Amino acid sequence: MYKTCKETLTDNECIIHCDFSENYLCKSNEEVQATHFGASKQQFTLHTGVMYYKNEQTLQEKSFCTISPNNNHGPTAIWAHLTPILEYIRETLTNINTVHFFSDGPTTQYRQKGNFYMLSEMVKKLGFQKSTWTFFESAHGKGAADGIGGAVKRTLDKKVTYGEDIVNAQSAYDVLQNCQSKIMYFYISDEDINTLEQNFDLTGVIPVPQTMDIHQIITTDQEHVIKYRKIACFCRELLCECFGLQEHNLRLKKQKRKHDEDKKEHHQEKMYSKTTEATIKRR
Ligand SMILES: [Zn+2]
Where is region (Disordered) located (predicted)? Predict the structure, then answer.
């Protein structure tokens, strides 16, 4: 699927394959020498990935890493991390109007109603027309995004052994910015994440039935309406109807529904939100 998407990528499309790396624990040079690590180590977040786009018929790739002192990995945080990447594309690759996101399967951080909602809102807000989000099967797809996280951590560890102290996200960012590297780095402040939290109310977003079986989300021109299917497809232009593409309104007003349908939704919503509630409602 990933391969098909890459091979058929047009000049106005790009791919973003992203993943949260495991949080980095702050280190100082003395601690490394003493091999002593306290239990209450300060840690920070690394969101990493690779973007692919076409330039004069050839596939180009660029790696990125966003660094934040805020360890929220919920939907609004995801989009705070993605925003500078999308702004970069908007500014430097001006013919791109479609973004295909890819992420690894088992995790609930990307495959959940809050992220679907943010996708449908943010992609348009940042000046793109169309987007898809494809979820890899659990065993598949690890690599590109994961590899960047590993490379960034090795760079930081090496700097520590050479005497640098990585005491927080800011110092890590400063150190990484000064490295000769092909990776693009951006710093995501608490404020960046809090601003999105304030601007997007995720309470009451209606979950997509059987969310955990979904392998592809496609945004539409209609506000709050997404399409989804259990098997991803890139056979031709976006929105092919293969594999039983279905439609879902993330904000459908409840009074329009029949009473028992209403109850069913509510029950499903409760079930699906269990795992994600903690991250969404972190205000
Ligand atoms: Zn198709």
Answer: 254-283
Separation of CA 119 and ligand 1 centre (Å): 21
Q: Give the start-to-end residue ranges of the domains of the chain.
A: 2-280
**Tens-digit pLDDT profile for residues 82-134:** 999 999 999 999 999 999 999 976 668 899 999 999 999 999 999 999 999 99
233 and 244 in contact (C-beta within 8 Å)? no
Q: What's the gap in Å between 68 CA and the centre of ligand 1?
A: 37
What is the CA(238)–ligand 1 centre distance, in A? 8
Q: What is the ipTM of this complex?
A: 0.98
* Residue environment code for 192-216, b if the CB has 16+ CB neighbours within 10 A, otherwise e: bbbebbeebebeebbbbeebeebbb
